[in-house]
Amino acid sequence: MRxxxxxxxxxxxxxxxxxxxxxxxxxxxxxxxxxxxxxPLSGWQADGGQTxxxxxxxxxxRINAAGGLLxxxxxxxxxxxxxDSDVAVQVAEEIQQAVQSGTKVVGVVGHYNSGQALAAMDxxxxxxFVVVTPTASxxxxxxxxxxxxxxxNATDAAQAPVDAKFLVQTLGAKRIALVHANNxxxxxxxxxxxxxxxxxxxxxxxxxxxxxxxxxxxxAVGQIKAAQPDAVFLAGYxxxxxxxxxxxxxxxxxxxxxxxxxxxxxxxxxxxxxxxxGAYVSGITPDPKRAADSKWWAEYQKxxxxxxxxxxxxxxxxxxxxxxxxxxxxxxxxAKVASAIRSLDFQSLVGHISYNTAGDxxxxxxxxxxxxxxxxxxxxxx
Length: 382
Known about the structure:
By secondary structure, the protein is α/β, with parallel strands linked by helices. Helices cover 45% and strands 19% of the residues. Strands 7-6-8-9-10-13-14 form a seven-stranded mixed sheet, with helices on both faces. Strands 2-1-3-4-5 form a five-stranded parallel sheet, with helices on both faces.
């Protein structure tokens, strides 16, 4: 019996040791901190918002596996702004209430669109966390003096000169129809394009404002056809692009079509169908197929059960900026984190991260793509 007891004791000891070894491989975290993702997660822009969310979630998974942020687990909470500025304010108020109730909020990744970012920042600017947009490009966002706002994407002030030069010098366009959506993003980029084209010695032959997300753009198609342009530029989202482009082609307008970063989504290609072939699109972040390795893709697919979208690496990089800022500051204090972010210098999936005092990237690259065989093919980077 004693021998049996000794054997059982040894077996129990081995099991305990193995259990302890297993536990030691999983970091013991002190508590939880919250990062909100504010983006359109339903409706007409849901695909873009969900791909950003996937990137944030993957970065948080990696942070937690490595021991968390200053020893705390990062929990990602998604809030749907529905691509609507009034809803974006409600989202910001919900986050404000969470902070006031004692929730440890350390950052917001968002908003996806410039209009919603502008609306929400009226509330976020006074709250104790940093905000990093993955995609909002309107120049006014970083001209308002916010101390807690940053981007991981290029701005329209960088995008417009590259796009204008491509139209005029690469495509040889002389009669450009400038079309823009009736929102903050479309109007802001329209103005930047007008300035950039004028610097090249040209003006659009027609400038047309179109309704956001409309089921048809027939009125604009008629105006464009009557103007007889040799190129069309759209400052708008995929929901305008995949309506306008097919209708132009059906109306017999076969001139080169170029769209801004708002159309740099696979949904633009899918929604446009055969009409997308040959179209040009500019990007304010790189192509994830070039920027991310196979391991990253596999981890994303496992976590999200879908392929990454064009802006998944932007969400991932925005979360990385928050993480690196907190680690550099050695604190969750918002002012210290914001100050630390301004002194960051590291390489992310969207490129080199280093900020000016306004919260814009010091190094901004613009990518030009052409749709070939149903996919984005990179033409140039500037």
